[in-house]
Amino acid sequence: MILGISWLVWLIALPLMGFFILLFIPARAKNALRWGALLTSLLTFGAALGMLAQFQVGNPALQQVVRLPWVRIGDLTIEFYLGVDGLSLLLVLLTAFLTPIAILSTWSAVEEGVKGFMLFFLLLESGMLGVFLALDLVLFYIFWEFTLVPMIFLIGVWGGERRIYAAVKFFLFTMFGSVLMLLGILYLGLQTRTFAWDALLQQREVFAAAQVWLFLAFGLAFAIKVPMFPLHTWLPDAHVEAPTAGSVILAGILLKMGAYGFLRFNLPLFPQATLQLAPWMAALAVVGILYGAAVAFAQQDVKKLVAYSSVSHLGFVVLGTFALTAQGLEGAVLQMINHGLSTGALFLIVGMLYERRHTRQMSAFGGIWKVMPVLGALSLIVTLSSLGLPGLNGFVGEFTILLGAFRSAVLASPWFAGLATLGVILAAIYLLTMFEKVFLGPVRHEENRRLPDLNGREILTLAPIILLIFWIGLYPQPFLDLIHPSAERLVALVQSVALAAH
Amino acid sequence: MSLSDLMMVLPIAFTLVWALVLLLIDLWLPRERQGILALLTALGLAVALGLDLAQSGRSGSAFRDMVVLDNFAVFLNALYLISGLIALALGYDYLKRMEMERGEFYALLLFSIAGMMLLTQANHLILVFLALEFLSIPLYVLAGFARPRLESEEAALKYFLLGAFSSAFVLYGIALVFGATANASLTGVIEAVRSGSAEVGFLTAGAVMLLVGFGFKVAAVPFHEWAPDVYQGSPTPVTGFMAVATKAAGFAVLMRIFLNLFPGLATSLTPIFWGIAALTMIVGNLLALAQSNIKRLLAYSSIANAGYLLMAFVPYGNAQVAGQAISSMLFYLLAYGLTTFGAWAVVVALEQAEGRGLTLEDYAGLGPKYPWLGVTMLIFMLSLTGVPLTLGFWGKFFLFRTAVAAGYVDLAIIGLLTSVISAYYYLRIVVIMYMRAGEPRVRRDGWLNLVAIGTAAAVVLLSVVPVQMLELTARAVLHLP
After folding, report:
1. CA nearest neighbour of A353 among A244, A429, A236
2. Coiled coil where (chain A) (predicted)?
3. Which residues of A310-347 are buried (b: 16+ CB within 10 A; e: fewer)?
4. Lower CB count within 10 Å: N or C terminus of chain A?
């Protein structure tokens, strides 16, 4: 808390304040704009650390709550209602952590329209943080929809060749999902006379009859965002066409909004429907894991490969979520963070290669380690983290999820975990093949011989991520401790319904 | 007629007299000093607006219950008068550079506004018909104001023929209602319906005929065919005025008559309203997809928006949500009006002589080249799509809330899915403006910029405090004499 204003408010307000300051910096002062945006996002990260310092570990309830009435319509009030608990805390931190890194990565990659880029980036950050902090359903929807606007610009203006197609597809897919969620929100509000998350939780019985429909209305929006098979087709386009920083944020954070939505809304608000549909969701998740991995293996374009690997990795998150065990949920949240870190880093690496060679075809590389040893070494760590090598972060998340899925009473079948394990093996195959084709072997192309290795700024963008990769991999306990109480409570809540049903 | 009677219609009377004075002044004014007329018209509208707002909170009837005054009328009259002011701002430079500045323009605009206000306050079916003609005839002329351009003449003729056609429906409906109740005064009809002396069959037929007639005015499907051609052919400031004010007037009379006279017929009329609302949303949005001319695209968008408004009106017979329906419809009209006028201002800025500068391709590169105009158009498109942090989002939110509260989840689903379709064509304009290279030609004009920036600021800033606006519309209740 600073000046009597909660950290949560600062988290949303700081990027907006930066936005308004940047508005008045002339477009030709490119460096001033870059530094302004970076400084803003670093301050925001500072606010996130402030929030972390105040967070009571071990308390499963919502904390640091900010609650103000906003729009009063008859007897229904839309509130400006923010709060944080174990499910959202790490995601907020991840958002505030990745944004400055993404901005730093654009230093030389974005030369045209720096002002617009930074303005949209700060708007996006504010919107994403709002999504993770909002506890009023309408407020959540507003932030959720609002993130679309800066993102289509980031893809559509600063993206690759088919950027317009990708941007429009991204917008329409997401909007299609979210309008039905809006309908669900309106229905909930009119049935219970409240939009507040915890008040709805108390009144679950009121809308118990419509649970399956509500689950589907919310679930469609989240499943598109995650994305779950077969709703994933927007993702490869958006990822491939987006500029590097856009891909980092898209993979690192936007996809997590969908997974987080399941955790925050579907599980606790519609527990009967969750129990009923969990095997189906888990089955789709497993299909996504295997399908994403198989398609990733077939790619020639590194960025596409990473994009499809996201489909596979996010499948683990959904599987862990619908295993409905404490381990599964903890693993799911941790895997979200891990995926944000390792895939974010992979996209940064792809971006660094692309800036030097202006191609992403694996056949254009080979033997890069010899030319760029620093990039090679860092890439190896990131690749190993992404494929889940023990000792690095990816392993902890995936292992916890598989353990949770294996022990799950709801899924009640070892097949889910068994097949998903195949995904881990496939990930090793496609990621190592990619690494081999790009970095190992002889230098096959003359133009690759004189590529400059990473400069200080580039190392600075990767270093913090790699630090966390090791930290989570070697000593994950502090992170799990943050998640555990809230995950435990959520599972207890869903399980109590299961018991009542018997 | 007493003085208190006159007080009830003071804004109307003032507007009429002012229009006549302007006609006289025009006779003495040299041709090159027509600009003075525009300023005088603006002055007149501003005074009328002041008179209108001074009436807020008052209610009553006058001229033996021929007209009523209520907050509903005050709100809508203000909307028409402000629309008139904005249309003037759009036209100030436009009329000059398109060489169609003639003094009649201003008087006709005022006549039409007076007709709208009369239509909103009318409490007698004959007066409703009279006011409907009174607002329409000046508009027929205004639609053809770009004469001798063929498109404009075509627009005027089409508007006139279909307008006359729809008036016939209204008249027939009035005759049937009169036949059913032996009364043409709204108060009398309500009394007859309440006492059970009304002949239900004729009354229903009359209501349907009235619905058809008003359906033409608000451009609801399947009575929308005229709108794209008329919107395209008319001088753009007139088009903007029609899209906002005429539509609002059509909805005003629809609300007053159906809520007052036919709540009892809701069971038989609701399926018709349901069908028209669903069709309007679907057809309007689908046809907008195929447009390459910005004026036609906005015309179809205005049809689709009429569909959203009608969606909230479907449960009009349900007393529990009727009040909510009115306030959310008025809110939407205001949100839509601000957004649309802004968009039309941008269209005017890009329009060149001979109807050039009106294809979507002419907007390529607008965003980077003219940041202010680009951002305002972006805001209008987002607001029309219903993206949060714009008034359009709250407008849709309140309309859908009404539909869901009344139990029309099916209609709400149609509305929400069609708004995803609409996202495609609104987004296309954004994409063309920001993501395609081009050399747009823009007319720099202070009044246009004022309208575009003013409405854009309103659309964004008011969205932070939507509740104050909603309270305003919630107070705009209908008064029964």
Report:
1. A244
2. none
3. bbbbbbbbbbbbbbbbbbbbbbbbbbbbbbbbbbbbbb
4. C
Query: Rounded distance, CA B478 to CA A111, Å?
Result: 58
Contacts of A182 in chain B (CB under 8 A): 397, 400, 416
Query: Would you call A172 and B423 a contact, using CB atoms and an 8 Å cutoff?
Result: yes
Helices (H), A162-300: 163-192, 197-202, 211-225, 234-241, 244-249, 255-261, 267-269, 271-297
Delimit the domains of chain B by residue range: 265-481
Bridge partners (DSSP) of residue A73 are A76
Which of A156, A172, A190 shows the shortest C-beta gap to B405?
A190
How many whole angstroms separate alpha carbon B317 and alpha carbon A303?
57
Q: For B438-461, b where at least 16 C-beta lie within 10 A, e where not — what string?
A: bebebeebebbbebbbbbbebbbe
So what's the pLDDT on residue B177? 93
CB contact (8 A) between residue B398 and residue A73: yes
Q: Is there a contact between A171 and B467 if contact means CB atoms under 8 Å apart?
A: no
Task: At A136, give phi and psi (nearest 5°).
Answer: -100, 135
The model's pTM = 0.93
Residues of chain A with C-beta less than 8 angstroms from the C-beta of B427: 152, 168, 171-172
DSSP, collapsed to helix, strand or coil, labels residue B129 as: helix
Across B93-101, average pLDDT: 85
Mean of pLDDT values over B413-433: 92
Contacts of B368 in chain A (CB under 8 A): 113
Helix, strand or coil, per DSSP, at residue B228: helix
Backbone angles phi, psi at B60, to 5 degrees: 160, -175
| Residue A231 to residue A212: CA distance in whole angstroms | 19
In this prediction, residue B120 carries a pLDDT of 94
Q: What is the pLDDT of residues B130-145, one digit of tens each?
A: 999 999 999 999 999 8
| Amino acid code (one letter) for B113 | I
Which of chain B's residues have a Cβ under 8 Å away from the Cβ of A70?
467
Q: If you ran DSSP here, which 8-state letter would residue B124 be given?
A: B
Chain Cα centroid distance, residue A63: 22
C-beta separation of A154 from A116 below 8 A: no
| Pick from B302, B316, B136, B132: nearest CA to B218 | B302
Q: Which residue of A has its CA nearest to B434?
A: A157
Average pLDDT for chain B = 90
Give the one of B389, B405, B416 whose C-beta lies nearest to A142's C-beta.
B389
C-alpha B72/C-alpha B120 separation (Å) is 8
DSSP H helical segments within A106-162, as ranges? 114-133, 137-146, 148-158
- What angle is formed at CA B311 by the lines to CA A179 and CA A223, rounded to 5 degrees? 10
DSSP A134: B
For chain A, what are the domain ranges? 270-501
CA nearest A135: which of A191, A75, A62, A188?
A62
Residue contact A175–B423, C-beta within 8 A: yes
Average pLDDT (A197-209) is 87
Taking the C-alpha atoms of residue A160 and residue A167, their distance in angstroms, rounded to an integer, is: 11
Q: How far is B400 from chain A (nearest CA, A)?
A: 8
| Contacting residues of A for B424, CB less than 8 Å apart | 168, 172
| CA dist., res. B394 & res. B326, Å (int) | 15
Query: Which residues touch B477 (CB under 8 Å, ≥6 apart)?
Result: B70, B71, B72, B323, B326
- Show the tokens assigned to A220: 């469609």
Q: For B187-201, how does the pLDDT look when each residue is reduced to its tens digit (9 = 90+)? A: 889 888 888 888 889
Nearest CA in chain A to B398: A73
* Cis ω for the linkage preceding B388 (within 30 of 0): no
| B234, two tokens | 């008319």
* pLDDT at residue number B237: 93
C-alpha angle with apex B289: B288 to B294, nearest 5 degrees? 60
**Quick one: pLDDT band at residue A450, thresholds 50, 70, 90?**
confident
